């Protein structure tokens, strides 16, 4: 699992990463480990009205997958003695928000993500993906929005 490669970021001194960036990368990798699709990080720090520094947005195939990712993130919060997030939407399981204050995770089932197109609302953000080693790679808003074309074709 990719997460275990990320453990070094949590346990070691990587002075080039803030705690907020570490949490962002961790949650993105955890979602990916549970086979979430189209996992993107939105950096919102430069947007004055943004409620958080980062969003992690991911698509899930089912309510059960949303629940599994939520549970994994909560388990890792306990394991790493992180503050537990505020959670919204867990009862319905179609759009769950885990709010760590500086980092907000959005777990959507495909139909709900396609309806809200949250990335379009935050088009001024910087967009990233995360690789196996936890490195963030820039992607364009056009690349991100392309996922919705794929959703419509499916």
User: In this structure, how is the largest beta sheet organized?
Assistant: 7 strands, mixed
Task: Indicate the low-confidence ranges by residue numbers.
Answer: 1-6
Determine the strand fraction and express it as a percent band. Answer: 15-25%
- As an assembly, this protein is single chain
Which fold does the CATH topology refer to?
Answer: Beta Polymerase, domain 2
Count of beta strands: 7
Number of domains: 1
Taking strands numbered 1, 2, ... along the chain, how are they ordered across the largest sheet?
Answer: 3-4-5-2-1-6-7
Spatial extent as radius of gyration = 15 Å
CATH first level: which class? Alpha Beta
Task: Classify the secondary structure makeup into a structural class.
Answer: alpha+beta
How far apart lie the N and C ends?
28 Å
Question: What letter string, H or E per element, gives the SSE order?
Answer: HHEEHEEEHHEEH
Spatial shape: globular
CATH architecture: 2-Layer Sandwich
Mean pLDDT over all positions: 88
Please, what is the CATH homologous superfamily? Beta Polymerase, domain 2
Number of helical elements: 6
The helix fraction, in percent, is 40-55%
Describe this structure in words.
This protein is an alpha+beta fold and 154 residues long. It has one domain (2-153): Beta Polymerase, domain 2. 43% of the residues lie in helices and 25% in strands. It has 6 helices and 7 strands, in the order H-H-E-E-H-E-E-E-H-H-E-E-H. The protein has helices at 2-11, 19-33, 63-79, 110-116, 118-121, 141-153, and strands at 37-43, 54-60, 86-88, 95-99, 103-109, 126-130, 136-139. The chain is globular, with a radius of gyration of 15 Å. The model is unreliable at 1-6 (pLDDT under 50).
């Amino acid at each position: 699992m990719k997460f275990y490669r990320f453990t070094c970021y949590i346990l070691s001194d990587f002075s080039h990463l803030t705690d907020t960036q570490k949490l962002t990368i961790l949650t993105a990798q955890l979602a990916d480990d549970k086979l979430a699709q189209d996992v993107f990080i939105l950096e919102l720090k430069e947007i004055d009205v943004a409620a958080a520094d980062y969003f992690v947005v991911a698509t899930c195939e089912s309510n059960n997958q949303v629940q599994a990712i939520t549970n994994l993130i909560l388990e890792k919060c306990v394991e790493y003695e992180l503050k537990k997030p505020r959670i919204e939407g867990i009862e319905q399981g179609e759009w769950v928000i885990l709010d760590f204050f500086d980092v907000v995770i959005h777990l959507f089932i495909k139909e709900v993500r396609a309806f809200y197109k949250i990335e379009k609302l935050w088009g001024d953000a910087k967009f990233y993906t995360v690789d196996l080693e936890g490195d963030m790679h820039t992607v364009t808003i056009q690349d991100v929005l392309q996922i919705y074309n794929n959703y419509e074709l499916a």
